[in-house]
Amino acid sequence: MVRTLCAALVALLAAGLLTGTATAEHDVRIEGESLVAGAQATAPIQSQANCCGVQWSSSHQLWFRAGRAGDRATLTLTVPESAEYDVIATMTGAPDYGILRLSLDGVPVGQPFDGYRTSVTKVQVALGWVPLSAGTHELTIEVVGRSGRSTGYFAGLDLLSLNPIGGMPDVRIEPYATTGASVSAGGFTWVYDPSIGEQKQWYYNDHTMIRDVTTGTWHLFGITHPEPADPLDEKQFGHATAPSPRGPWTKRPFALTADPAAGESHIWAPHVIHHDGRYYMFYAAGTPEHSSYRMHLATSTDLNTWTRSPANPLFTDGYDARDPMVVRHDGQWAMFYTATSGPFGGNHQVAYRTSTDLERWTSKRIAFEHPKFGTYGGPTESPFVFERDGWWYLTICCDSGYEDTRVYRSRTPLRFSINDLAGRIPSHAAEIVTEPNGSTWVTGAGWGKGGVYLAPLRLDGTVVARGHHITTPYLRADVRHWPTTEVRSLAADESGTGQDHRDILDASARSTAPYLAVGGWGPTDRARAAARIVISPNGSRIGLLGIPMGNEPVTADWTLEFTDDRLDTSLSWRVTGATTTGVWETALGLDSVDTAMVGNNVRLDLDSDQPGYPRWLVTRTSDVTLVAAYRDGSSWSTDNQWYQRRHGLISMQSLWDAGGRSWPAGVYPGGRWRFGVSESNDLENLGDVLHAEVNSG
């Protein structure tokens, strides 16, 4: 399936020289100085004769006398026949030369080239395999900066070599726009004050509202306690009733009090549903052991008198597993709750378990995982899941503040990605409440808030994502570029028929994209919407340029190049200022399907950090295998590689530093990789062939 090393062979067949217009039947050689005529440039450009002890091809080079970062020269060249070419540029390096980015038809090729050298010299720069149709094309030389040792921004092109390696790839590209709902809230109204009749101020925190199916009366239950907040002393669930969620609410006696004999040192976050004539209240029972909080159940027939279930605890989990919420999905019940990836801490998660009888629950599974690590608190509190018009929504709190509820969107309630943000609501412990007439509300409460608040929930139909679907006989990709930049999915058809693509990369955990980790491990600053999208005329190359990395002064340029049976990806970084704190990771992450096994050329099954970069890495399922080979020296640094078996994750970390370090302003090549799919389990042969290919030229 993978091409052999034809590129290395055809490079030995270099033929005669060309000027301006290429007419060679096979290899194409274009003298740089022949492109001066007709060039469009922001600084002087000329043909320069041999100097400084260097003998250029045909005794001349194209000399671009750029004076600053941002200067560019656009050159027109002609290709005689449609083919895929191995493109090699012979550039000049010197003490006063800058850092360059080269593009063909607007799409970057290769990695940024640092032209600084201590003396004038020629440097061969491999730009990769590029499909080019017969006719004219534009080559752009852009100065993106200079190294600290360089005294200028000059650039020089001696020769451009196009070595044909095959026919034009069969690539189809189609733009898409996904519509959905943007979620927000109207103005909040204070509807219930639990301090009425009390000597001091009381608060409500996590709560639930439910309508009596017989009387139509609404019931409110929630954590309640005198101010100030004391979560480990929250031992009662408050209770109030009203004719509608808007009130007026009447205070009732406590619905439930913590029972130490039942294993409850405190009780948190009630959630009530109705099923088969009975009301089920799920809640967290706190214990002195934060690693094994208990999930409990009480039942009632009238919403006033509650009886604990003999099945308690339904299960235990940590760290501080709490905030249950139950919905009906696909013929069974699903309970969502907040937890961490390990019982003693880890990634903050929304976990779920399923049941057919509301008492016996399956083992823990993960619906959402946040990159932040921790123990108590965290950004996945108070999960609430609901469905509208074929989309499922997850609300969780509190990412950047106490009243910061984030809303995520998915086609399934069992898997949400942090990249699928659908809205934000200024609320704490939000619940979604729908009246029989369809009116839908979002609630809020919390420490120091004085009770419960209500606002209309707004779901406004709009475009929620833009991207391109790219299909070849072997590969099918969903490349999103707004509101985030990522490869949402990559499927492979090992047969090459284009009829049996099977998923190998997805967005179930982190997505496949560049990311930064600032102030801690994991993607704290993700790839946002690319500032500019450029696509080659035949659709085989897409450049995602000026990608903001979170709120840091860092952008990325990411190029994806498709042929029939492989995908090349090149990444570069631009740092324009000091980050908010130390940088722990600069990385390209791969998100495999959860069933994938991940590894590299040394070991095919890994679940740990590994120093340096591998020759190649692999992710594979029982259905398909994907191998990615690294072009040696294409990244400014190769600190670490990280593999996580649980989610099929791989991160290639150019920078990797526990505790973080400063990242000076500049332009940094982030690495070039070649992906291919396997026809067999001969991974070593496939990896070695891909590695040789991507390192040819």
Summarize this structure as a short list of keywords or feature phrases.
eight-stranded antiparallel β-sheet; mainly beta; single chain; 697 residues; 2 helices; 50 strands; elongated
Shape: elongated
Q: Kindly state the percentage of residues in helix.
A: under 10%
Instruction: Write down the overall mean pLDDT.
Output: 92
Structural class assignment: mainly beta
Strands, total number: 50
Task: State the helix count.
Answer: 2
Extract low-pLDDT stretches: 1-25
Q: Outline the biggest β-sheet.
A: 8 strands, antiparallel
Strand content: over 45%
Descriptive overview:
- The chain is mostly beta strands.
- Helix content is about 0%, strand content about 55%.
- It is built from two helices and 50 strands.
- The strands form nine sheets. Strands 12, 13, 31, 32, 33, 34, 35 and 36 form an eight-stranded antiparallel β-sheet that branches. An eight-stranded antiparallel β-sheet has the order 39-40-41-42-50-47-46-44, covered by helices on one side. Strands 1, 3, 4, 6, 9 and 11 form a six-stranded antiparallel β-sheet that branches.
- The longest helix has 12 residues.
- The radius of gyration is 30 Å and the shape is elongated.
- About 50% of the residues are buried.
- The N terminus is likely disordered.
